[in-house]
Write a structure and sequence with these properties.
single chain; about 325 residues; alpha+beta; 4-stranded antiparallel sheet; about 55% helix; rod-shaped
Length: about 325
């Protein structure tokens, strides 16, 4: 089961016990987001397609128990992945009962203003968003075994995909606190979040608390691993820097020996040169500690050694 599916399952469990007003808001969001309106023998009918029969059973029960509208679920073909695709068809008049469709003075059927569909009550607004995510939402998070966000293209991403741009923008405005971003994708308008903390807040809002806890665990685990990885990279870089510096110092010492100038060096320079030859892998800090001098003092002596070797090279 994907993370996205687990979030939807949590939402569906929460929606089963919703108050009548919230159940209607949930169903309104689903039908507006993914419902199809067709003209049949007995009038206009809404239908919803999905490969999740549990989801269709839920919205069918909501229509029956809360609005007195019957529905019928049937499997009508196979998807590209070889799984059954189901259709839930509702009896006529459901759209008018939910306020999705309206009739003008001449009896002509039209659609309600998208901005008028988002409920005003806080509980119903939450149920409306639960319906939207169940119908047209998805969320992807990195796996805990990924070391960093760049590995395998692993990113945090939550989105709602709409066929109606006006409805998408109405949702974005109504839920402005979520700070959705908008982008076109083929024939759809997508509202999305990429920040892990905002995704976590969204999961809490739609009552997917178990998914939110799992996401927090992923965030913490990845943060720890990234810190360890950064520390390891820093240590490697420091080792490479030490090796490079040591190599230059040893070259200067060897050059002074070959010139016959080593024994004429001041005792302080001969002392640090002999220690470097004995311990080529020692860090500057370790050298300084063994000589009971400061790190800057050790660096000054090495710089002086290399300057003397360089000056003699120029004379030659």
């Amino acid at each position: 089961m994907t993370f996205s599916q687990s979030v939807k399952n949590e939402i569906l469990r929460s929606a089963r016990n919703a108050k009548p007003c919230c159940a209607a808001a949930f169903l309104t969001a689903v039908l507006k987001a993914v419902g199809s309106l067709t003209l049949e023998r007995f009038g206009y009918c809404f239908s919803v397609e999905s490969d999740n029969v549990e989801f269709l059973n839920l919205i069918g029960n909501i229509a029956q128990e809360r609005l007195g509208v019957k529905s019928h679920i049937s499997a009508y073909n196979m998807s590209a992945k070889g799984t059954a695709v189901y259709s839930c068809r509702f009896e006529a008049a459901l759209g008018e009962k939910l306020g999705l469709t309206l009739r003008d003075g001449d009896g002509a059927l039209g659609f309600a203003d998208p901005s008028a569909l988002v409920p005003a009550e806080a509980c119903c607004r939450k149920a409306f968003m639960q319906g939207l995510f169940s119908a047209c939402g998805s969320v992807v998070i990195p796996q805990t075994e990924d070391v960093s966000d760049s590995v395998g293209g692993a990113k945090y991403h939550l989105e709602l995909r709409f066929t109606d741009r006006d409805f998408a923008r109405a949702v974005s405005a109504a839920y402005s606190a979520a700070e959705f971003r908008e982008t076109p994708r083929k024939n759809h308008t997508v509202l999305y979040l990429k920040d892990s903390e905002r995704i976590a807040d969204f999961l809490v809002y739609v009552n997917a608390t178990a998914a939110k806890l799992y996401l927090e665990n992923v965030i913490i685990t990845r943060s720890v691993r990234n810190d360890v990885n950064r520390q390891s990279n820093c240590e490697v870089a420091n080792i490479e820097k030490t090796v490079a510096a040591s190599g230059k110092q040893l070259d200067a010492i060897a050059e002074l020996r070959s010139q016959g100038r080593f024994d004429a060096l001041p005792d302080s320079l001969k002392e640090i040169a002999l220690l470097r030859e004995a311990e080529p892998e020692a860090t500057l800090e370790e050298i300084a500690r063994r000589l009971h001098i400061s790190k800057s003092g050790a660096n000054h002596r090495f710089t002086k050694l290399m300057d003397i070797a360089r000056q003699q090279r120029k004379k030659l």
